[in-house]
Design a protein that fits this description.
five-stranded antiparallel sheet, elongated, four-stranded antiparallel sheet, Jelly Rolls, mainly beta, 42% strand, 204 residues
């Protein structure tokens, strides 16, 4: 065999070995050494598919940094709150057009009113107004007046009956100014009124 043919054979074998090694390398993973930094530019969006569960280990505390100017909305979902529910009644005597009754609030508490239901009845032909006055911060200056819309329901011989039912959000600290007040347009005969107040108490 000539030297020329031997050189061609050796060259072909070397080429085959190089190609084979390249194919094997392509099948292997890429090994990154020295843990280089990875820079992500343009802040791309990250989409998490299939909504996987996220587990927080070791039950760390969660801190809310919002101040009073941007509070975080809170919804009370527990039934273990200090529930307030009270029915109050009053009578308007003949010769009078107005009567009121205090809404009691325990010391050191603030009443949050969520529901008010009222009934007023009196001599036929008389009209009535009803309202709830509440004072917050117990300094006498933060007075809220909440009017109830009375609707005539029943006409009994000699008596007209009105009712009102409202969802609301009103606040009352302990004060003699927290009242349920009913007024009518005539002093003839006597009238009766009641109100049921539902909500909850919070500590001051």
């Amino acid at each position: 065999m000539s030297i020329r043919k031997m050189l061609i054979g050796v060259t072909l074998c070397a080429t085959a070995v190089l190609v084979s090694n390249a194919v094997l390398a392509a099948d292997k993973g890429v090994i990154v050494t020295n843990t280089p930094d990875v820079n992500v530019v343009n802040m791309p969006d990250v989409n998490v598919a299939n909504t996987p569960d996220v587990n927080v280990a070791n039950a760390p505390d969660v801190y809310v940094i919002n101040d009073a100017t941007s509070p975080v909305p809170v919804l009370i979902v527990s039934d273990a709150i200090d529930v307030y529910q009270k029915r109050l009644t009053l009578g308007i005597n003949a010769g009078s057009t107005q009567e009121q009754i205090n809404i009691p609030v325990p010391t050191g508490k603030r009443l949050v009113i969520e529901q008010v239901s009222s009934r007023v009845q009196g001599p036929s032909g008389q009209t009535f107004t009803a309202r709830i006055d509440t004072v917050a911060f117990n300094n006498g200056t933060n007075l809220g007046i909440h009017w109830l819309v009375l609707t005539r329901q029943v006409v009994i011989p000699g008596i007209d009956l009105y009712t009102a039912n409202h969802q609301m959000r009103a606040y009352a600290d302990q004060s003699p100014s927290n009242i349920f007040l009913v007024t009518r347009d005539s002093s003839a005969g006597s009238a009766f009124a009641e109100v049921s107040i539902t909500g909850y108490l919070v500590d001051l």
